[in-house]
């Protein structure tokens, strides 16, 4: 009996954790948890009531507890990181969902009643973000297998969904990182033919291949700044040369936040290639 009780308490903790550390009681009740479960969790010090109809874990973000006291919760671009999705930049204002629809200091309020699915949140990102910000979020949902392109096509099939359909059409499920997604977007907007994850014999896959002749690797320190990563990069550099592929290594920060510099380098490199 005690084991079952502990398992239920742990399941309750996991359910709250999946919601960012703070959850509405009504959402937890919809999952099958009872008043007894809440009492047991509080008695064990696993959770606490922090606002009317809200429970939080000990490590919960104080900002989320503050929002709970205003009967609001993070959503849209302010929620995607909790969902494990890519986020280009933190929004200037915290986006929150609130059934009351009233202003909340420092926040952009979405009037939302009831729970929200991931697709609901993706739709909000399309409405609030730039085309690139929304693409990053939607593409990561597909790449991480949290949503399918088919599901997104159905979701954005209405007359008012022109912007959403345009973003869905840009999604490449083979993308390996937010940097690759942003690089591909900026290059295509500049009019270049771009292939993601292009396979080169004996070298592996390039992040991006521009106009079929210029490879681009969008390097981040996490995967390249190690002895093993450095050795593999040197080997691949040799293979690219032997296969006649020019290549640029562009830091992730440049691709993400200074795309104009990336585009200038690409233009210069292509001019050199064409002059040969």
Automatic annotation (TrEMBL):
Superkingdom of the source species: Bacteria
Annotated protein name in UniProt: DUF559 domain-containing protein
Organism of origin: Arthrobacter glacialis
């Amino acid at each position: 009996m005690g084991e079952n009780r502990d398992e239920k308490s742990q399941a309750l903790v996991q359910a709250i954790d999946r919601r960012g550390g703070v959850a509405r009681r009504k959402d937890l009740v919809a999952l099958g948890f009872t008043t007894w479960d809440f009492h047991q969790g509080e008695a064990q010090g696993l959770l606490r009531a922090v606002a009317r109809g809200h429970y939080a874990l000990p490590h919960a973000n104080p900002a989320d507890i503050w929002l709970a006291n205003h009967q609001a919760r993070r959503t849209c671009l302010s929620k995607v990181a909790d969902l494990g999705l890519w986020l280009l930049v933190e929004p200037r204002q915290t986006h929150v969902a609130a059934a009351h629809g009233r202003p909340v200091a420092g926040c952009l309020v979405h009037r939302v009643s009831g729970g929200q699915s991931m697709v609901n949140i993706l739709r909000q990102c399309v409405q609030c973000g730039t085309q690139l910000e929304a693409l990053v979020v939607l593409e990561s949902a597909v790449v991480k297998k949290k949503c399918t392109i088919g599901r997104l096509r159905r979701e954005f099939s209405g007359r008012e969904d022109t912007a959403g359909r345009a973003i869905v059409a840009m999604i490449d499920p083979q993308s390996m990182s937010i940097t690759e997604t942003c690089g591909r977007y900026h290059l295509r907007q500049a009019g270049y033919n771009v292939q993601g994850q292009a396979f080169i014999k004996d070298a592996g896959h390039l992040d991006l291949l521009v106009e079929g002749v210029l490879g681009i690797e969008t390097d981040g320190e996490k995967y390249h700044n190690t002895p093993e990563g450095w050795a593999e990069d040197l080997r691949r550099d040799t293979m690219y040369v032997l296969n006649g592929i020019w290549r640029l290594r562009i830091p992730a920060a440049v691709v993400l936040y200074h795309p104009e510099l990336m585009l200038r380098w690409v233009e210069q490199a292509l001019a050199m290639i064409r002059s040969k």
